């Protein structure tokens, strides 16, 4: 019979030690998961932000119904929103919405009694909801009631003053205890609030292997938008909005069907039954944007008003779109007050009237080199404006007036006149003798 080798002897002698190690490993509890304090604090901030986001549209809608609804029922609305969020988060799943985003959940030290889907006893959840939701609501209501009834101004012997001092002392004590609890939380990371410490509820990771997935996607997006915003703030002052607007209008005029037809040969148009005379083609090319505008209105004022989005200004884009004046042969239409009257009328080289200020502004822009064009084009006919003169009306002198009769009449055949404000309109006057 052969003697055992040295390896077999060593294996046999190590068996008791191996058995002891296996037994100790089976009886030892699992190590505590890694505690992340930042995740717990972030979950609380996310819950507060979610509650405020849900409450904000309701607070904006209440003043539309009544001005006093927001001040009267704002605490109740906040309590109702927080109660609904608590029911569908902590009560049902054992974690708030902010805790779920941080991959955390609540666990209780004692699992006695009936448990819910959150695996936390019902009594513990009821007490936690009362401490975190009901107690702050009652405190806010009691404080607002005390301030509205002047409890702090009551005499020191009054019960209201004593109740106010008691409430103030309780708030101070709660603040100090909260500070101590937060200090201990930073030390061991176990209980985030006083309610969690009283009920022995703490937030733990949902997974055994805690891994912080730090994503820089949001930060990168914010940096891109921030750089793009700074670039726009630098670029927009360098762009002349009026020049761009003028180019867009001109491009729209070139791309209109009537303008495109003038570029086609006459033979294909004749075969299709489309005839364009030279006079009509020239008129199409020279027709301006406001060719059909009434003669007693300023086209530049109308163009400026079409880009004014201020609702408080009576001449804005909305009123301009709602009522765009056009030329009409009806004499009754000429008696209406124009929406954009001509003040201090000046006549251009093409024979159209504009306000002095509007016309001078456009021509000064061309002279200063803000526009690349050689001359400013009329908004009515599209021709280049070379010069402009003050528009004046000559009143013919009446030499012979018959004043011997019992009745006399003054009349004028002028269709246009200039009042003190410079507006253009029709003029007629008649008078009866004594």
Question: Briefly, what is this?
Answer:
The chain has helices at residues 6-27, 37-65, 69-93, 97-101, 122-148, 159-188, 194-199, 217-235, 241-254, 257-263, 266-271, 278-286, 299-305, 317-322, 331-334, 356-367; strands at 104-108, 201-205, 345-348, 353-355, 376-377, 384-385, 388-390, 417-418, 424-425.
Could you please describe the fold and organization of this structure?
The chain has 434 residues and is mainly α. Among the domains are: 37-205, no CATH class; 290-393 and 409-434, no CATH class. Helix content is 53%, strand content 6%. It contains 16 helices and 9 strands. The strands form 4 sheets. The protein has a 3-stranded antiparallel beta sheet. Strands 1-2 form a two-stranded antiparallel sheet. Strands 5-6 form a two-stranded antiparallel ribbon. Helix 3 (69-93) packs antiparallel against helix 5 (122-148). The longest helix has 30 residues, at 159-188. It is elongated, with a radius of gyration of 43 Å. The model is unreliable at 279-284, 320-329 and 400-434 (pLDDT under 50).
